Amino acid sequence: MSRKLHLALHPYGVGGPGQHGLWKDPRVAHDASIDINYYIQQAQAAEHALFDALFIVDSQFINATYPAHYLNRLEPLTLLSAVATHTRHVGLVGTASSTYNSPFNLARRFASLDLISGGRAGWNVVTSFDTGTSRNYGLDEHADYTTRYGRALEFVEVARGLWDSYEDDAFPADVAANVFLDPTKLHELNHVGEHFKVAGPLNVSRSAQGQPVIFQAGVSEEGRDLAARVAEGIYAPGGTLESAQEYYADIKRRTASYGRNPDHIKIFIHGGPVVAPTDEAAQRREREIAAEDNDLDRHLALLGRSFGAYDFSQHDLDAPFPDVAALAEKGGRTAATKIIERARRDNLTLRQVAESAADFRQSPFVGSPTTVADRIETWFGAGTFDGINLAFRTTEELAYFVDSVVPILQQRGLFRTEYEADTLRGNLGLPIPVNRHTQARQYVDAVGA
Amino acid sequence: MSRKLHLALHPYGVGGPGQHGLWKDPRVAHDASIDINYYIQQAQAAEHALFDALFIVDSQFINATYPAHYLNRLEPLTLLSAVATHTRHVGLVGTASSTYNSPFNLARRFASLDLISGGRAGWNVVTSFDTGTSRNYGLDEHADYTTRYGRALEFVEVARGLWDSYEDDAFPADVAANVFLDPTKLHELNHVGEHFKVAGPLNVSRSAQGQPVIFQAGVSEEGRDLAARVAEGIYAPGGTLESAQEYYADIKRRTASYGRNPDHIKIFIHGGPVVAPTDEAAQRREREIAAEDNDLDRHLALLGRSFGAYDFSQHDLDAPFPDVAALAEKGGRTAATKIIERARRDNLTLRQVAESAADFRQSPFVGSPTTVADRIETWFGAGTFDGINLAFRTTEELAYFVDSVVPILQQRGLFRTEYEADTLRGNLGLPIPVNRHTQARQYVDAVGA
Ligand SMILES: Cc1cc2nc3c(=O)[nH]c(=O)nc-3n(C[C@H](O)[C@H](O)[C@H](O)COP(=O)(O)O)c2cc1C
Ligand SMILES: Cc1cc2nc3c(=O)[nH]c(=O)nc-3n(C[C@H](O)[C@H](O)[C@H](O)COP(=O)(O)O)c2cc1C
C-alpha cells in the first residue's frame, strides 16, 4: 500500500475527553499538565516511535466546575518551543484561536517556533468553543459562526502572507559588498480585508519547511469549508466508521472543489486506543475506564460548555432535558445540536444526557495488539482517516502501544520504519509552499518582459 | 558592602545599539539572531558566570533599511521558553509591548514561561517605539504617550490580577475526596477599566516565584512614572555618570513616593564593555568598533526610527538638520527631542547628526580588567545602577569578561560567588508577592469575623 498512515500524539496530562477522572490514576502526576518535563518525555516517546507530531489542544475559558486538565495548563506555543530543542524530527502542532489573537502577533510566534524547531511547527486553527472566552478579551459576546469562521479564513491568509515576507534568498550577508539584506526580497503585505488591516512585513524569515502547517478542528459546515479552503491537516472527532467515511469523503471532495489536491489535506481522527494482551483484558479495561469517569459535576460542567458555560446544576437531574436550544447558537452549535436532538429523540433526562456525554471517549481501537492493528488497517483502508491522533491515559499505555501495535503496522507496510524528513511537511508528505513573491518572479522570468 | 551588584546579559545576535555592522565580524554567524542554539549557548554562558538574567529586546516594525539585527529575529517568549529547559538558575526576561498585546493572552504566555522555567520569567514592559507597528495591528496611528503609558499601567495591573487567579494551595488533588481543585481558591478578576475589560480567571497557576518580575524600559516622564508605580526592574540607557545618578535618584525617589520600597526596583543600565589585557588595547579596540560602525544608510534609518520611520535620505546630507519636530510626538519623543535639541544647539548637518547617533554605544566600561572593575565599582558606589545589562560583540568577548572582570568583582565582594536562589526574584532580592486573595483571607482570619 503506498498511502501511508500518519500517527500523532495528543498528550492528556491530567485528563482528556472522556477521561475527566484521569488525575486520580496513581500513575498520573497531579501536575502533569503544567510540567514541561512531562511534555518533553511525551515528545521524545513520540519521536522514538516515529510519530509525525505532538498535538497540543487548548482553551482559554474556565470556571471552577471544569475538569482538571482544563484548569491549569501551559500555553501551547511556549510549551512546544521548550519541547522543540529536545527533539529533532517530531512535528509540533499547537492549537491557537483565530478569534482571540492578532495575525501579526500569532504569525510571528509560529514563525519563531518554526525556526526554533527547524521546520516542524503546525498551527491548529480553532475559533474557540467556549463562549466565555470573549469576556477575557474585552467582548461581552462571543462572535457568531459566520464572523468567527470568516475571521479564521482571513487570519490564515494574512498569516501566510506575512510568512512570505522574505524570499528564501533574501539575505546574501555579503560582507565585501556591505549587503546583509537584498531589499528587493523583502515584501510588505498591505492586507486590507473585512476583519484585518495588516501592513507587514514580518520580521521573521521562513523555515526549512517554508511555512508552518495549517491544521483545523471544527466540524460544522463552516468548519468543513474552512478546512477545505486552507487546511493541510484536520483534527476530526472520528465517531463511527460510517460517520468518519462520510466526513472524510466530504472533506476530500470539498478540497478538490477548491482546486486543491485532496492528498494535501491530512485528516487525523481522535483515537484513544485501549490495548491489552488479549481482547478480553482490553474490553475489561475499557469498562473500568468508563466506570471511573463518573463525576457527575464534571459531566454537567462539560455539558454546559456547549451552551456557553450554562449551569445545568440548577435543573432537576431526573426531569426531561431542559429547553436550552436558544443557548446553543454561538460556541458549540454542532455539539449542542447533537445533544438536543438525541435528548428529544430518546426522551432523555438531564442525568442521562450528562452521563452519556462521554461519547468522544468511545474508541474503535480496543483490543489485543493484533485486533487494534486490524481495526486501524480496516478503517484506514475504508477511507476514514489519513492519520490518528493517539491519546493514552498513561506513559505505560503509550509505551505498550508503541511496542506492540506499531511493529505490526510497520510489518504490514502501513507505517514508516524511519522518518522521511526532518520537517513536519516532509513527514506528512505535504509540499513546501513556494514563496509567493519568488513564484511571481519566476513567472515573469519565464514569460519575459 | 552589603548591596549586591546584578549582572544580566543582552545577547546581540548579529547586531545591537551602535553595533550595526556587527554581522560583518567573521566570528559572528549570519543567522545568530534566529539560531536558538546561539541563545542557548549565551544563556548557559550567563548562567555559568552566575548572571541574574538573560535579557531579550524586541520590536515589531521593520523596513528594508533597518539594521541587520532588527530584520530577522525570534519572538522573545518562544525564544526564552526554548532556553528555559537548558538552564536552571538564570532569569529569562522577555520584552513585550503593552500597546500591541491583549492582557489575557500575554499574561498567560508569561505565566506559562514562569512555570516552564521554575520561576525565572521576567517581562520587560515596553510601549513600542516604532510608530509603524500600529499598521501591523490594524491601526492607522500609534497611540500617544498618555494613552500608551496609561494602557501599560492598566495592562500590568490586569496581568498581576490574572496571575493571582489561583491561590498557592488551590489544588489539593485529593483522590479519596474526589477534589482536584478547591473552588474557593480560584478567583475571577472582573476587571473593568479605561483600556481593558477582563473577566478571568486565568487557567495557569503561580510559579515558584509567585509572579513574573516586571521590568520596564522607557525614559520619558511617563516612562519613569510607570516604572515607579509597578516595575521591579528597569532597563535604562546609562549615559554619563551624572545623568545615570540623576535618573537613579529620581526613580528611587518616585518609587518611595508611591509607598514602595525603593530597594524593590532594580535599575539596570546598558553596558557594552570593551575589555582587553591593557587599557591601551581596549581603547584601540573601541576606536576600531566605532570606525566599523560606518554604514550611513543604517544610521539614517535608525535616526528615522525616532521620527516614525521617517525617510531622511530624501534630504541633503550636508544641509542643516531638517525641521522634523512635528514627527516626534509619538513613538520616540524622548530620543527625538534630544536629537533635535543637540542639532539646533550645535548647528549640525543631517550627516553629523546621523553619524553621532551611535551615542548609545559609548560605554563607560572600556579598559583592562582592573580598570573596568574599578569603573563598575565607582559607578555602582555612586548610585548610578543596581545592575548592568551587559552586551558583548562576540562569544569570545563575553568569555573574556567572565574570566577576567567577574573574579575581581567577586573578590571585592560586589558580585555573588553562587546563586542565592533558583528563581529570578530570589537572585534579584525581590520579595515573592503574596497572592492577593490569600492576603485578604489572612487579614480576615487575623481580625476575626
Ligand atoms: C477533534 C477536535 C478537537 C478540537 N480541539 C479544540 C481545541 O483544542 N481548542 C479549541 O478551542 N477548540 C477545539 N475544537 C473546537 C473547534 O475549534 C470549534 O470551535 C468547535 O468545535 C465549534 O465549531 P464547530 O461547530 O465547527 O465544530 C476541537 C474540535 C474538534 C472536533
Ligand atoms: C535601554 C532601553 C531599552 C529598550 N528596549 C526596548 C525594546 O526592546 N523594545 C521596544 O519596543 N522598546 C524598547 N525601548 C523603548 C521604550 O519602550 C519606549 O517605547 C521608548 O523609549 C519611548 O518611550 P520613552 O520616551 O518613555 O523612552 C527601550 C528603551 C530603553 C531606554
From TrEMBL, chains A, B:
- Name of this chain's protein: LLM class flavin-dependent oxidoreductase
Q: Which domain of life is it from?
A: Bacteria
Keywords, sorted A to Z: Flavoprotein, FMN, Monooxygenase, Oxidoreductase
Gene3D superfamilies given in the database record: Luciferase-like domain
Homology family: Belongs to the NtaA/SnaA/DszA monooxygenase family.
Q: What PANTHER family does the database record attribute to this sequence? A: ALKANESULFONATE MONOOXYGENASE-RELATED, C2H2 FINGER DOMAIN TRANSCRIPTION FACTOR (EUROFUNG)-RELATED
NCBIfam families, alphabetized: FMN_nitrolo
Q: Which SUPFAM superfamilies match?
A: Bacterial luciferase-like
Q: Which residues form the Luciferase-like domain?
A: 30-383
Query: What is the annotated signal peptide range for this record?
Result: none
Q: Does the keyword NADP apply?
A: no
